[in-house]
Amino acid sequence: MLQTLRVKNLALVENVKVDFEPGLNVVTGETGAGKSVLLGALGLVLGERADKGMIRAGADAYGVEAAFLLADDSEIDTILEDSGLDPCEDGQLVIRRIVSEAGASKNFVNASPTTLQVLKRLGALLVDMHGPHDHQSLLDPAYQLDLLDAFGHLWDEREAYETVYAERRALEEQRAALNIDDEEAARQLDMLAFQVKEIEDAALEEGEEEALEQEHKVVANAQRILELANGIVEALTEGDGAAFAALAEAQRGLEELARLAPDGAAWQDEAKSIAIQIQELSGTVSGYAQSVETDPGRLQWLDDRIALYHTLKRKYDASVPGILAVLEKAKQRLHDLSTRTAQRAELDARIQATTRKLEKVGGTLRNKRVSAGKQLSEAITAALADLGLAHGTFEVSVSDCEPRATGLDIVDFGFAPNIGEPMRPLKAIASSGEISRVMLAIKAVLAAHDKIPVLVFDEIDANVGGEMGNAVGQKLQGVAEGHQVLCITHLPQVAVHGTTHFRVSKQVGDARTATSIERLDEKARAEEIARMLGGPDLTTVTMQHARELLRAAGPQQ
Among 92, 147, 452, 485, which residue's beta carbon has the most beta carbons within 10 A? Predict the structure, then answer.
């Protein structure tokens, strides 16, 4: 469940902390008070896009933090471990996001920095958010198909189908690549043969270019290297006043000093060591000078070899491994074109075999979709009856189609609001109130099959009349028996069913407007319901009506 939501400097929200409870948490308040801003804040920690324009005037950043307590954190821990993050301790998960005017947003999970993609993966397992504009998604055939597969737990069967489908698509692409005329094939064969010969003749080796450039630097500067080396040898051991000769004179003095001073012996040993080092250094420099290549032919060869590397990199790829990959691809393509008649026959046979396999796994998926569709139809029809559509019927239609990425089926949701009326696609429903109730019914049914712990409904009761509010509230209360539910509502008939009631309001102080949120006790809750019923001027009648609605809904807190 979502334990705590903290929001700072987001739009009208200066600094707010909300402690949510299990069950149905309802959030009410006047229009424009900032209710949806709070749920937008929750969306931010779950990976939704950030808007720097929402930073509160006078601030340079906003921050949102959500603390979750998870009954089962195994799937969350898997994502955390895959992302290099520590697992949850005692089911505690804290997600924090900071969005500043300057720079990218900063994301944290249990105090460790992470990426926005990780927040999105976590969010998909933690919270299902449904906003007032999400009804349109219900009209999308792809969304309907996903809902059916989620209800039927058909993701394994769908994945099996998608794997075979991808295999067939790959084979078809290979087959299409071979479907060229003889003239074009001859042109490609010539080009590929030239590429293969050019790269193979070059006999490229990883690391050779770097070695060539180092040798080129030496050979191109051979004369100057010899001059410097000879000068060094002269200065160390062979020239007049060489360091070795001067050190030999010093050694003779140290030999006599060693007989007279206690420390002299150590100095004498040190001088001997230095003399040996000078001789070794001189020999090393002299030997290196003798190895330096001064052949102009070698320099020309190096120039040509380096130029060849540069040419091939410019033509094929910027790295030797990349060029060798181009070679392998060209050789494979050369082989395919050279044997394209046999290749096409082989691919045709493989495509036929894969098509048969696709039809088999697709048929299995279809049968399970048909079965799940019947169950889903019955469940949603029953849920619609609870929402005041006692004569409404919901139907999931599964029809055949040509193979596509998601299966061999077209799924269509239909609805007949009254007895005797024909079943029509959902997109043909004229009443926005009906489509709202259909969406709530679907969400309620799927919730029983869904492990996501937190469900958020932002104005799910939009376009629903007051007489239907009680049914909507009861349905939300039923969903909240197995999930934590957060619901923003304008209907008092819905709000009275909450186990916990929060009120969002605006205050003006110091020439600034700020949003606050408070948990309502019994007295304040009755006043808020009365305000929702009759406006800000409370009367005895509206207060009495509010108390009656709360009593009818039953003890919630």
Answer: 485
Residues 429 and 438 sit within 8 Å (Cβ to Cβ): yes
Residues 27-31 have a mean pLDDT of 87
Instruction: Give this prediction's pTM.
Output: 0.64
Indicate the pLDDT class of residue 544, thresholds 50, 70 and 90: very high
Does residue 320 form part of some domain? yes
In 70-141, the DSSP E strands lie at 92-100, 106-109, 112-114, 127-130
Rounded distance between C-alpha atoms, residue 225 and residue 248, angstroms: 28
- Greatest pairwise CA separation for the chain in angstroms: 128
Instruction: Record the tokens describing residue 517, joined without a space.
Output: 């949120």
Q: Residue 16: name the closest of 535, 541, 502 by CA.
A: 502
d(Cα 273, Cα 60) in Å, to the nearest integer?
Answer: 66
CATH number reported for the structural domain that contains residue 485 in this entry: 3.40.50.300
In a domain, 140, yes or no: no
The region that residue 129 occupies, defined by phi over 0 for left and psi between -120 and 50 for alpha, beta otherwise, is: beta
pLDDT confidence of residue 103:
78
More confident residue, 253 or 69: 69
Same domain flag for 315 and 173: yes
337: three-class secondary structure by DSSP:
helix
Condensed to tens digits (0 to 9), the pLDDT of residues 466-512 reads: 677 888 888 898 889 889 999 998 899 999 999 999 999 888 877 78
**Secondary structure letter of residue 134 according to DSSP:** G
**Residue that finishes a domain, picked among 362, 382, 404:** 362
First and final C-alpha spacing in the chain: 18
378: enclosing H helix or E strand:
helix 340-386
Say how many domains are in the chain.
2
Residues 79 and 180 in one domain: no
Quick check: helix, strand or coil at residue 295?
coil
- Enumerate residues 6+ apart whose C-beta is below 8 A from 512: 14
What 3-state DSSP class applies to 510? coil
pLDDT at 449 over 80: no
DSSP summary character for residue 550 = H
Domain boundaries, position 457: 2-132+423-553
pLDDT tens for residues 35-77?
Answer: 878 888 999 999 988 889 889 888 999 999 999 999 989 999 9
